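The instructor's notes for this session suggest beginning with a concrete chain rather than abstract definitions. Hand out the sequence below and ask the class to guess, before any prediction is shown, which regions might be ordered.
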Amino acid sequence: MQKSPYDIIRMLVERVILPKYPFLKLYDIDSYFLTNYREYDVRFIIKQKLEPEVQMEIDREIKSLFKVAGLDEKERYTRNKIATWFKTPRSKDWSFTANPNYDHI
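After discussion, reveal the predicted structure:
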């Protein structure tokens, strides 16, 4: 039986990301179909806001795992994408803070 992309992403996050960054708590993995590709969102709960460099480091690692797992592959001209979002208990919305030239999605 083949695992779903959600199961693969969850397994990678739980086995690779969470042990490396114990201050993260996985909240949810969601996806949306946009025009001609699927975007996956990985959401983390954090106790306090993270520096942009740390957010970008975590996001880069998740993107690398996503590619290694072959989940970015899509037929023809587009590639599936993955994005990382963070939220503190006091925050209303999910956010990601990065340097201006960083391609988050």
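Then share the key points. Strands lie at 25-34, 37-45, 81-87. The first strand starts at residue 25 and ends at 34.
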